């Protein structure tokens, strides 16, 4: 059972996925954005336009923060009422290379707090969703984080390649620190999807030294409702206003402790 609000937002995510899957891989009209390895295609733009129109019809009073619409800043007035935080295609580089996954991520904040999240992977037809207090789901199946310790878990990481070598070097050093303490490391290229992998118990922990609000807003709700926890990589709460480092973890690993990376490995963030 979905609430009417969830039903409508989930339908928008499914339609966004259909647009992604209709893409002509030979004609993506890719543009380089600011920084290293930062791209946008015409499909990112098309999906964002579609979602803004569709979601505005569902909740006309809501504000918008989105990766591709020039409205990338969380303004102080967004602390009141509803704000959609959307990433039309999370995993744009994967999308360009026809490497998977790429997902659509729709978060909804209420008075600045995470309230609802929908993440859809159209290539596998996995829809992740959660509303505060109502649990987390993958399609129609209730999901919870993994019960096993870090030593029996996969860890996934993001390399944060957009901000110069110092931050990325930290990411790899921290990844190496986890390699020893876990089964192995994964790097998918979609932070939103990585957070769903923790929420659904496939991995035990995910970290990335720098993410945009649209990369984690929806995933955070799904992870929390699946029994997981999140914070920044220094262990501080995330204010849901913009860029931050991100660490998401299963409830079991959080309960055992000893999973926060050492501060001396963190350079430049
Ligand atoms: P994207 O595919 O929507 O661009 C991979 O390291 C993760 O970081 C992806 O989820 C990617 O999202 C995200 N990302 C891309 N550009 C970024 C930027 N400039 N700052 C922070 N995160 C970014
Ligand atoms: Ca994106």
Poorly predicted ranges: none
Distinct ligands, ions and cofactors found in the model: adenosine-2'-monophosphate, calcium ion
CATH architecture of the largest domain: 2-Layer Sandwich
Strand content: 25-35%
Structural class: alpha+beta
How many distinct domains? 2
CATH homologous superfamily annotation of the largest domain: Fructose-1,6-Bisphosphatase, subunit A, domain 1
Q: Residue share in helices?
A: 25-40%
With strands numbered from the N-terminus, the spatial order across the biggest sheet is: 3-4-5-6-7-8-9
CATH topology of the largest domain: Fructose-1,6-Bisphosphatase, Chain A, domain 1
Largest sheet descriptor: 7 strands, mixed
Distinct helical segment count: 7
Shape: globular
Radius of gyration, taken over Cα atoms and rounded to an integer in Å = 17 Å
CATH class of the largest domain: Alpha Beta
Report the strand count. Answer: 14
**Strand-and-helix sequence, N→C?**
HEEHEEHEEEEEEHEHEHEEH
Distance between the first and last residues' Cα? 41 Å
How confident overall, as mean pLDDT?
Answer: 95
């Amino acid at each position: 059972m979905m609430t009417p609000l969830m039903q409508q937002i989930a339908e928008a995510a499914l339609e966004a996925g259909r647009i992604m899957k209709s893409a002509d891989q030979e004609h993506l009209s890719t543009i380089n954005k600011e920084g290293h390895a930062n791209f946008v295609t015409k499909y990112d733009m098309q999906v964002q336009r579609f979602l803004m129109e569709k979601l505005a019809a569902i909740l006309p009073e809501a504000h918008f923060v989105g990766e591709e619409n020039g409205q990338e800043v969380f303004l102080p007035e967004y602390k009141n009422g509803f704000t959609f935080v959307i990433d039309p295609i999370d995993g744009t580089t994967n999308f360009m290379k026809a490497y998977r996954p790429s997902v659509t991520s729709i978060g909804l904040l209420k008075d600045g707090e995470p309230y609802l999240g929908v993440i859809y992977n159209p290539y596998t037809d996995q829809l992740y969703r959660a509303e505060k207090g109502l649990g987390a789901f993958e399609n129609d199946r209730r999901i919870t984080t993994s019960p096993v310790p870090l030593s029996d878990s996969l860890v996934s990481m993001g390399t944060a390649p957009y901000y110069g070598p110092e931050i990325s070097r930290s990411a790899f050093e921290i990844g190496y620190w986890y390699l020893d303490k876990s089964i192995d490391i994964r790097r998918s290229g979609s932070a939103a999807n990585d957070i769903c992998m923790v929420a659904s118990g496939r991995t035990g922990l995910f970290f990335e030294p720098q993410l945009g609000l649209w990369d984690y807003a929806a995933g955070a709700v799904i992870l929390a409702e699946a029994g997981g926890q999140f914070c920044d990589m220094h262990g501080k709460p995330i204010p849901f206003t913009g860029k931050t480092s991100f660490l998401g973890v299963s409830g079991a690993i959080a309960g055992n402790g000893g999973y926060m990376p050492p501060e001396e490995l963190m350079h430049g963030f």
